[in-house]
Write a structure and sequence with these properties.
The protein has helices spanning 9-31, 62-72, 100-109, 119-125, 173-182, 196-201, 216-220, 240-244, 246-265, 280-284, 315-325; strands at residues 38-41, 44-47, 52-58, 76-77, 87-88, 93-99, 114-118, 130-135, 145-152, 167-170, 188-191, 207-212, 223-232, 234-238, 268-276, 294-297, 303-311, 327-334. By secondary structure, the protein is α+β, with helices and mostly antiparallel strands. The protein folds into four domains: 9-47, no CATH class; 52-142 and 234-265, D-Maltodextrin-Binding Protein, domain 2; 145-232, Periplasmic binding protein-like II (D-Maltodextrin-Binding Protein, domain 2, 3-Layer(aba) Sandwich); 268-334, Alpha-Beta Plaits (2-Layer Sandwich), CATH 3.30.70.120. Mean pLDDT is 85; it is low at 1-9, 22-31 and 33-42.
Length: 340
């Protein structure tokens, strides 16, 4: 029988596998933004710059985190609402959006160099990570959040001990189990995918452990707190090996410093004013300054300029008082960062 002049089936299959593998590697490069951070030389991919893999929280902390990063000097933008890869105007940062609940696991495993998440999820995942800095901001303001044990009004449950043999729903399962074990109370803890308040109000469970910042949602659902399991703040965390890298550590500490400065400036404003020499002591006495105000002489003899930083919430009361004490040309201005 005459043999076919075409390629053998085995060779054809091998070529197809090679082609698929090539397409996969191209997609992988694009996926990791390698084409934006390096170039090919003799078949090898050469990095232009060092890159910090930075995880940002998706969900309730996303908006406030983007806001803080902007004040810190980093503009973060999403190509679309469905994208998980924000662009940052810093070529040394490669960002990805992940749920705060998962962040510490990926940082611990080294998939990310660092990330922003809550201390509650570090505890829940029992993650072994470096806490680079504490960032005291939450969804609604500059507050700590609390995980509280709550029961319906009129349930007759007054303490943790009253829940022995009962059912508790929560998203923070491991921390909740540890809490009841520590208090020697036997309960059934079940994971809740959300709408946890409804489950206890509807009689599906006896109590819940839920996150609260203001307590308004609990009150709206006629629930009362009987204990606080833990308080939590936002954290900048790092992978242990990444933190040992001098370049990555310096980059993380730069981000931490600027974020701390943005948070410190969040509820403060700057004030400038001019004051005659004879009114200087009276005006200074009215200023609740962060530190002693800056005082400098003006070109006109007998006049001084004062500049200081104060809490924004007192400005509406303070400005009339300063005016009455002799201050003139008072200017209030917003702050992006206060580095202490």
């Amino acid at each position: 029988m005459k043999k076919s002049s075409g390629s053998s089936p085995a060779r054809g299959e091998k070529d197809r596998v090679t082609q698929i593998f090539f397409l996969y590697k191209v997609s992988e490069y694009r996926y990791n933004n390698f084409l934006n951070s390096g170039f090919l030389r003799k078949g090898k991919f050469i990095m232009k710059n060092k890159v910090l893999k930075f995880g940002l929280p998706k969900g309730s902390l996303q908006e406030s985190t983007f806001k803080m990063l902007k004040k810190a000097g980093f503009n973060v933008n999403l190509p679309s609402s469905r994208s998980y890869f924000p662009s940052v105007d810093d070529s040394e940062i490669q960002a990805v959006l992940l749920r705060a609940q998962e962040m510490s696991r990926y940082v611990q495993d080294g998939a990310l160099d660092c990330g922003i998440t809550g201390n509650d999820w570090i505890l829940e995942n029992k993650s072994d990570v470096v806490r680079v800095t504490d960032l005291t901001y939450a969804k609604q303001g500059l507050n700590k959040v609390r995980w509280v044990l709550a029961v319906p009004e009129g349930s007759g449950i007054k303490s943790v001990k009253d829940l022995n043999g009962k059912r508790v729903a929560t998203e923070l399962v491991n921390v909740t189990k540890d809490y009841f074990k520590k208090n020697k109370v036997n309960v059934e803890v079940e994971f809740s995918w959300g709408a946890t308040e409804v489950k206890v109000s509807g009689g599906l469970v006896d109590a819940i452990v839920e996150l609260t910042e203001t307590g308004s949602s609990l009150r709206a659902n006629k629930l009362i707190e009987i204990a606080t399991l833990c308080e939590s703040t936002t954290q900048l965390i790092a992978n242990k090996n990444a933190y040992k890298d001098s370049w990555k550590r310096a980059k993380m500490e730069q981000i931490a410093l600027l974020l701390q400065g943005a948070i410190a400036a969040e509820e403060k404003v700057g004030l400038k004013m001019n004051v005659r020499k004879e009114n200087l002591k009276a005006v200074i006495a009215k200023l609740p300054a962060l530190k002693k105000p800056t005082i400098s002489g003006l070109s006109d003899d007998g006049w001084f300029a004062i500049e200081t930083i104060i809490d924004e919430k007192v400005v509406r009361v303070l400005i009339p008082v300063l005016k009455q004490a002799g201050a003139q040309g008072i200017i209030e201005y917003p702050l992006n960062k206060v580095i202490l």
